[in-house]
Amino acid sequence: MGISLSGLNSGMGDVYSGLLSSGGSSSSGGFDGSSLLSDYASIKNGSYGKMMKAYYAKQKAIDEEESSASEAKKSQKTKDAASASAARKFYETASKMSNLDYSEGNIDKLYDEVSAFIKDYNSFITTASKSKNSSVQAQADALNDYTYQNYKLFAKIGITMNSDRTLSIDEDTFKKVNEKTGATNVPTMKTLFQGNNSFASRAADRASKIYRTAGDGEAVTSSKAKYAGTTGSVSATDSISKKEASKTVKDDSAANLANALYKSVNNLGNMEINNTNKNKVYDAVSSMIKDYNALIKKGSESDNSNVKNQTGYLKDLINGNKNAFAKMGITVNSDKSLSIDETKFKESDMSNVKNMFTGAYSFAEKMTDRVNKIYRYATQGESLNAKSYTNQGNYGAVDTGTILDAIT
User: Fold this and answer.
1) Model's pTM, two decimal places?
2) What is the pLDDT of residues 84-107, one digit of tens each?
3) What is the DSSP track for 50-96?
4) Rounded Cα distance, 341 and 348, in Å
5) Burial class (CB within 10 angstroms; exposed 0-12, middle 13-18, buried 19+) of 222
6) Which of 128, 218, 268, 277 has the largest CB neighbor count within 10 A?
7) How distant is the alpha carbon of residue 227 from its chain centre?
8) 195: left (phi over 0), alpha (psi -120 to 50) or beta
9) What is the spatial distance between Cα 114 and Cα 159, in angstroms, rounded to a whole number?
């Protein structure tokens, strides 16, 4: 026996009416018929489905946003031993650029040093640009932007920026001499590579930041730096080798000698230097030489490999200025120690001494910076009361030895 369509519709109408008439309040335990009917109507006309779709779409967007933020935060903490290694190597190369002999007669050596700088730069920028650590990538982008800002200066000495962010150098352009004037590219090289505000110095700062970000938060100049001297990818959990462990050995004797030399150079920088007080200047320079010789002897024999390396850089700095020393009767010996001839010194023009030991970007400023690094490594992070020269030739209270470590 069948049921007619009209009968079915009538039956559904009775159900609706029953629900509406018998639905008690929630307090009496009955159904809320009007609410149920409203929900049914929402489902029937599709508005309920649209509401649910909107809800889940919004929830999905929230989940994706939270997941993306979590991944970004995680990527910022991703250790990157390869970038840390490349940053350490480039930092060392860039840091020593200021201490080179930028004279026209040294052009062949300068080409070799700049070529080494470019090689380590390319390795550094390529590795950091591919890092999974977003902060490392950001620092690499910043370095690339700064390099681009200097592309005209680079072009003058034959250095080209390539599309893959690397640099290349043309030897002929680098060593070019103007046939009419005899001018060379050395002044431009000094601008790019010499001094605290040079491209090389700022690039070294950037390398310091990347090293800290890519590794365990250690400063690139820290005695605990793990990637010194490596060129490839190394595990961030590798145990420290015996060679690395030697960097953590304190050397109080070297620290005391570094402190004494710092004071001697500081004394020269603060005294009146002219041709009327040659005796006092001679005594001060002699004291500086005595302290320098004592430091390089001890530093060269140190069990702390960082102290030994920095002592080597200090001797290179001295050797790079042997012509300037010769003008004042000071000889750089084969072991890079210094000796002074009193007669020749007092016969020389004291302006040469003044130029070396006073003024912004002077030899003394570079020397105190290197001595301060020896002290810091010897004491495992402590710093001398280092002071740098102002543009007026006076000392300003700036801790030159901890500039890189202060970068976050």
Assistant:
1) 0.42
2) 888 888 888 888 898 889 988 889
3) HHHHHHHHHHHHHHHHHHHHHHHHHHHT---HHHHHHHHHHHHHHHG
4) 11
5) buried
6) 128
7) 14
8) left
9) 10
